[in-house]
Specification:
Blueprint lengths: L7 H22 L7 H5 L9 E5 L3 E8 L2 E5 L5 E5 L8 E4 L2 E6 L2 E6 L5 E4 L1
Antiparallel strand pairs: 1-2, 1-8, 2-3, 3-4, 5-6, 6-7, 7-8
Protein name: Membrane-bound lysozyme-inhibitor of c-type lysozyme
Length: about 120
Amino acid sequence: MRFSEPSFGRTRQLGMLDLLITASVLGLAGCVAPSSQEENKSAGLAFSGPVKLACDDDMEMTISPKRDGIFVVSPRGLELDLPASPPGQSVRYGESLYAVVIEGSEALWMVSGKVPITCRR
């Protein structure tokens, strides 16, 4: 009985992309929260109501602050409540397969296994 050999070139390309995305998401999850309560108090979002952002490929994302996180309408129309990750800060939000990083006027929307989408005010 003879078995055909798998095509490792395509598997290696997908594996490296998956590894890169997984490492990015895990890197976000491993960040340390501010050490003092004063830093936590000053870590509020730079906006108080819903904000629409223009994203790559003519998409848009809406972010609304909540008590312990944000409500997001993703660039692909998915509606999610995302907690601060780690709790107590106002830059990284996420759980499960989804994450948002907000820095200044930019936000990066990430879905596990997909290419991140950059959005701007």
